Amino acid sequence: MVFRVYEKVPKLVPIKKIDVFRSVLEQLEGMIDGGMKPGDRLLSDRDLATRLGVSRPVVRQALKVLEGLGRVESRHGSGTYVAENYPAVGNLLLGIPVEARTLQMLIPARRAIEVEIIRQAFENRSDENLALLEESLRVATPSSHATQNTEGLDLRFEKRLGQICGNPMLQKLQNAVHEAWVQTEVSLGVVPCHHEALHAEHVAIFEHFRDGDVEGAITVYLHHLEFAG
After folding, report:
1. What distance in Å separates the CA atoms of residue 90 and residue 179, rounded to the nearest whole number?
2. Are 96 and 102 in contact (CB under 8 A)?
3. Rounded to two decimals, what is the model's pTM?
4. Alpha helices in the chain (DSSP H)
5. Phi-psi region of 83 (alpha: psi -120 to 50; beta: other; left: phi over 0)
6. pLDDT > 50? residue 222
7. pLDDT at 147 over 80
């Protein structure tokens, strides 16, 4: 038997995890926009992973991002559903090239909107709303399933603050900036903060919020944004 040896072997390039994640996120969004209605239940993460041919952790992370954007909502013990009150917004990135500095351009918008949301949410502080915030932290606790390339995309804690603030205009603005932020991170394949650090900062914000220290909560949030882009 004669083995042929090729002098030139085409270079194989590893497939980036972020590329798989991007495709999963796009397909899930396309599925929702392609005919699903508010209140419709999505397939389980196991079934979605099987149909997409990817791992369940990647599907779970994509669902976390969609929940943070307000596209879906998770109901404990029941599943994931298309959100009832998704605030439709325009695409802030239209006409703007997605570059490394795009995140830096978005930071002032996030700062202005999120700080005002924290202040207005603080005015609505109650045992019930504190329980909702604490629940968002519990479900976002870092686990071994988190993927390194998508850890910074979990915006559920900020989303919950937006809901508590009770201002639908601020919620729409928050959602528009969040969508632009996620689109930019996914396009660049760059995630600026580790999941453990992000979660710790959210916990610190919550603790200040719970203890009646709104300025402390804002200070922690602004410190987080300094390293976000």
Report:
1. 10
2. yes
3. 0.73
4. 17-33, 45-52, 56-68, 102-123, 127-139, 156-165, 168-188, 195-210, 214-226
5. beta
6. yes
7. no
pLDDT in tens, 13-68: 555 666 888 889 889 989 998 889 989 999 999 999 999 999 998 898 889 888 87
Residue labelled with tokens 């976000």 = 228
Tokens for 157? 């804690």
Q: What token pair was written down for 201?
A: 């900062």
Q: What Å distances lie between residue 206 and 121, 133, 213, CA to CA?
A: 11, 7, 10
Task: Find the helix or strand (DSSP H, E) in which 73 lies.
Answer: strand 72-75
What is the per-residue pLDDT across 88-126, written as a single tens digit (0 to 9) for each? 556 788 788 888 889 889 999 999 999 999 999 999 999
Sign (positive or negative) of CA dihedral 50, 54, 60, 66: negative
In 3-state terms, what secondary structure has residue 121?
helix
Q: Please name the amino acid found at residue 207.
A: E
- Predicted pLDDT of residue 145: 46
Alpha carbons 128 and 108: distance in angstroms, whole number: 31
In angstroms, the CA 164 to CA 144 distance is 30
Cross-strand pairs, 88: none
Give the separation between CA 77 and CA 219, rounded to whole angstroms. Answer: 36
Whats the size of the chain, residue-wise?
229
